[in-house]
Specification:
Distance between the termini: 38 Å
CATH topology: Rossmann fold
Order of helices and strands: EHEHHEEHEH
CATH architecture: 3-Layer(aba) Sandwich
Largest sheet: 5 strands, parallel
CATH superfamily: HUPs
Helix content: 25-40%
Shape: globular
Number of helices: 5
Structural class: alpha/beta
CATH class: Alpha Beta
Strand content: 15-25%
């Protein structure tokens, strides 16, 4: 099924294969994709347990990925100053791309949308990309030096 407009969001620290897959899935189901990137303020508020690059660096990584995918014309990059971004304001957003770890956030988004008189959006679950050791690729694991951005174990990277 194709949607007119979908959204996804994240911190996009240590941009990796899982992030790329997430974005590709969104691009495959929508004509337009809003990609929210956590601002430095939001990152501090969330209290990440690992370092996070500055917003500009993370924005540039996502932008370069979209250029490589030849999809920059389908995407709108926005800074997230709060966990919701445009999701509580834009009635044209039809779906939210979520992972297993963010489904609860998606349900919360729909509750807040209803409170504001907006229709609920479809939650599209995207599978987690696994590293060589069959554990999820994550920024935290990359920062710890366990794996690289492609999910290869540090001993092989």
């Amino acid at each position: 099924m194709k949607y007119g407009k979908v959204a996804l969001g994240g911190t996009f620290s240590k941009f990796h294969l899982g992030h790329l897959y997430f974005i590709e899935r969104a691009l495959n189901v929508a004509e337009e994709v809003i990609i929210g990137i956590s601002s430095d303020v939001l990152v501090r508020w969330e209290g990440k347990k690992h370092p996070v690059e500055e917003y500009e660096e993370r924005f540039a990584e996502v932008y370069r990925a979209l250029v490589r995918l030849r999809a920059i014309d389908k995407a709108i990059l926005v800074p997230l100053l709060d966990p919701y971004g445009p999701l509580l304001e834009d009635p044209e957003i039809e779906a939210l791309i979520v992972s297993k770890d963010s489904v609860k956030k998606g349900l919360k988004v729909n509750g807040e949308r209803r409170k504001r008189g907006l229709r609920a959006i479809k939650l599209i679950l995207v599978e987690t990309v696994l590293a060589e050791d069959a554990k999820p690729i994550s920024s935290r694991r990359i920062w710890k030096g366990e794996i690289d951005r492609l999910g290869r174990l540090a001993s092989r990277a």
